[in-house]
Amino acid sequence: MKITDAKVFVGGPGKNYVTLKIMTDQGVFGLGDATLNNRETLPAKYLTDYLIPNLIGLDPRKSEDIWQVFYRGAYFRRGPVAMAAIGAVDMALWDIKARLANMPLYQLLGGKSRDGALVYAHAAGADLEDLIGSVAACVAQGYKAVRVQCGVPGMPTASYATPDTKGGTAPFITDFSGIRPKTEIWDTERYMRFMPGALAEIRDRFGPELKILHDVHHRLLPREAAAFAREVEPVGLFWLEDPTPAEDQDALKLIRQHSTTPIAIGEVFNSIWECNKLIEHELIDFIRVAVTYAGGITHVRRIVELAALHHVRTGFHGAPSHSPISMAAQAHLNIWAPNFGIQEYLVLGTPECDALFPSDHYVAKGMQYVSDTPGLGVAFDEAEAGRYEYQPGSHPIVRLEDGTLWNY
Ligand code: GCO
Ligand code: MG
Known about the structure:
The protein is α/β, with parallel strands linked by helices. It has two domains: 3-104, Enolase-like, domain 1 (2-Layer Sandwich), CATH 3.30.390; 109-406, Enolase-like C-terminal domain (TIM Barrel), CATH 3.20.20. Helices cover 35% and strands 18% of the residues. It contains 13 helices and 16 strands. An eight-stranded parallel β-barrel has the order 4-5-7-8-9-10-11-12, surrounded by four helices. Strands 1-2-3 form a three-stranded antiparallel beta sheet. Strands 6-15-16 form a three-stranded mixed beta sheet, with no helix packed on it. The longest helix has 22 residues, at 80-101.
């Protein structure tokens, strides 16, 4: 069996999804997602200029060897661009393998460990009252877990993932007005004074059953993060996400020494080498990698297996930047992983998105259910894809009031 051709499509409804389709001489094909938010053309180029020419003629069933060749063979290893491209190839090869086996992917991983996988929705408000309305809307839809982000009084501009105005919807991260980023202004002191009380208020309003998550988005220094994690302990958060940047894996020790608030980290990691210490030293509770830019199913499964040895549960990234293809790959991992925790899930299901990526996976009452369609269980309508093209966009950047650049 041989790979005969592969194509890359960039575009989508309101998002630049990078979709890979690998064809074989037996008519079976596979799909992968290489979307890297606001850098989408780069994994696409990595695929077309290097990986695809090297795939032609290979046996698609040798997914492990192909992964090793692309990872080690590059000599310069890792990084989000390469790992997103390798990840897409890997997803497509697993899709082919499972289609050949005539089984849904989760059967090849070890079968179902649960009927449905817990997901969390996003709630956001320009102020606390606005946020309470947004959380109530999620609860009314049956979500059992909600990430809450709130505008901070006196903060010079709306901060991460909070709407500028009351009643507004939390903005998508991407600004499609161009590739030059807009600037948000951040003030740690205002945030630290306000947010613990806001989280406590959400707990009071919605009671003990609701799983409350909060994303600090790398904004605090390790000492501040430790103080914050300790202060919010009475709220009983399900998790506190990215309290401080984790490039310095040892910095997380300080948080652990001062607090038992569960910590979730990893959405920006591309490999096991960025989280092995965090996992082995049990400095985190949830690992947030994504199959897209952490090298696909082959590599993320390795991270999940390491995490399972250290009581670290999964909490894969699921921002709307991921296409339904990688969300499906994660859904299969979630339904299998013995150490599954939760899945971030943003309603992708616009009619346009469903038309481009038809699938029978679904979310009901805050749980995700995986279809038994062979493979990843997602199709790709190429005629629909022809309606879209790449739109340049950017993430904001963050500065302090005096102009100092900060962590987005
Ligand atoms: C999350 C994330 C995202 C990121 C985005 C960046 O927890 O969902 O923090 O919202 O900001 O993926 O491209
Ligand atoms: Mg996050």
